[in-house]
Amino acid sequence: MFAANVILFGVIIVFFSYHRASFDGDWNGPTVATMALTAATIVMAAVTLMVGIIAIWGYATLREQAENIARETAQDAVDEMRRQIALLSIGTAPNDDNGETETLGYGEDS
Fold it and tell me: Which residues, including other chains, have CB under 8 Å from residue 110's CB and lie 6 or more apart?
């Protein structure tokens, strides 16, 4: 990106060194308004481009974070289910902190 900016700057310098800009015309109201609106349009286009780039970057970051959270949540659920299956296979039911037996969510006590 930096190299593209340097090359563009060089092209502009070469262009304006051979084709000098002159403002010999009248500086009446419509000319000034046209120049101001043109400058505002260029600035708004640049701002819009930056906002678009930031939006794409933000979306990619949010998607990556959501995938990480989903992966961690799924892994926690798998680990908990493995723990319950391991306890059931050795004949003990998992208990919570109050000493009550947990259920597997299928209507049967484990």
Answer: 84, 87, 88, 93, 94, 101, 102, 103, 104
